[in-house]
Amino acid sequence: MNKPTFSIVTCTWNSAATLADTLASVQRQTCQDVEHIFVDGGSTDGTLEMIAAYPGRKRVLRDVGGGISRAMNQGIEAATGEYVAHLHSDDYYASDDVLHVVAERFASERVDWVFGTVQVLKDGQLVPPYRMVPFSYHAFAAGRASVPHPAVFIRRSAFGRVGMFDETLKYAMDIDLWLRLGKVAQPATIARPLTVFRDHAGSVSSANKIKARQEEFQVRRRYLKEAPLAFGLYCLRYARRMRALRAEAHAGVPVMQS
């Protein structure tokens, strides 16, 4: 069987409530040169039955434990496509031409990774997407530029150069990978939403914001020598954000993050 252009990795665990949107968004893509890899953590709610009924080229890895980083790595290891994307069961592609547009950008610029923006779905409403800050290693290390994981596509061969997700991390494994990858490979960016991300009480980053920020700080500290000035600027942003999060936790009232 010929190798596909895209390997889409979807991690699931009792995801029946949202998975239908994920699957439908892949099925609607104008580019169908895709293999879909499902990494399931032991679902008991009908998720596996939904996947079994899902048409197309697919592979299912069952009862994968050890956390989300390990699940994502298992998906990467199983992938045979030229480009790998992680589309979790909470998320879905924002339009039918996402994979086509991404494939064209890879072909025209010969880069190792491409990313766009995400649009957040909160309380049933789509929030206007944030403005994309131009990517540079310094801007990302300083916390000014962001890389939204659901909208990232990586050439599979790049993982052999920089490694995969750090399985000791629970929250900031994606930032750790972008810091490694961004040091050796400038990405191409697409200034439009590629993926819709559901923000809800079950989201790891939403439910544990303070712990996530603390782990992010430790991850960024690993790369202090790569961009010391940028890390210093990040520390100022970190202190401001942590004060706001602690105030939010104390008052029980959400605050805006910057």
TrEMBL record:
GO terms for molecular function: hexosyltransferase activity. It comes from the Bacteria. The keyword Transferase applies. Signal peptide: none annotated. Residues 7-126 form the Glycosyltransferase 2-like domain. Keywords: Transferase. This is Glycosyltransferase.
